[in-house]
Amino acid sequence: MASNVNPTVRRRRLGQELRRLREVKGMTAEEVAERLLVSQSKISRLENGRRSISQRDVRDLCGVYEVEDQRVVESLMEMARDSRQQGWWHAFGDIPYSVYIGLETDAESLRVYEPQIITGLLQTRSYAEALIQGALPETSAADIDKRVQVRMRRQERIAAENNPLRLWVVLDEAALRRVVGNNLVMREQLEHLAEMSQLPHVTVQVLPFGVGAHPGLNGQYAILEFADAADSSVVYLEGVTSDLYLEKAHDVQKYAVMYEHLRAQALNVDQSRQFITDAAKEYAR
């Protein structure tokens, strides 16, 4: 697979284009489904990029939308071929959040709010192992190791020399106080966090308990933004059995505004780094 082909992003772009063609035609998803003798949910999944799409699907949909320009049809079919290829994460087998990994791999910037744990892209290996063991007590050692390997691989975006991921993280103080593993693991994790926060493309802010009630009390979320104007921003909400991806402009805007409030209420960058450094020292006692 070519290194610049991200199947998740290809599916998403293809779905957006198919939705545009349907809307130009003035048809509803239900009407298209009825014409093709498929379920309306299939059309919706194809358009939101959550399902792989075959060249036959593209051909049939272009027929319904009466696309006469063969170059457009061929371009969409090429995107369908790319979307069925495998990303690097598929080498690790079945990864529950593979859609998110595909989006993160192609994102230009990522804003994260974490109320309970250190965000995955800034975790040490020891912290990640202890965290996964605690969060998924029935997971085998082999599966834990696989998840840790994937997490470490994801972190390569932060260390990349060319076009590294721009990361902004707001951490609740609880993430620093919750002992994951043991004191040694926590000390190393917080020292690593303070070190990473000095990178020019990584910003870390701490939201102390003293702030009281704040807009992030509903839980963790992430906002992914992309360099290509054709790719709209995505809000990612992680669930126990399934994840939620919000792409409608008003949904993304609501979470973006909420993030600005969190950043404003959190300690500034220098204060946060000192707060993290002091917390790390407490684990050395």
TrEMBL record:
InterPro entries: Cro/C1-type_HTH, DUF5753, Lambda_DNA-bd_dom_sf. CDD domains: HTH_XRE. Residues 18-72 form the HTH cro/C1-type domain. SMART domains: HTH_XRE. Transmembrane segments: none annotated. It holds the Pfam family HTH_31. This is Helix-turn-helix transcriptional regulator.
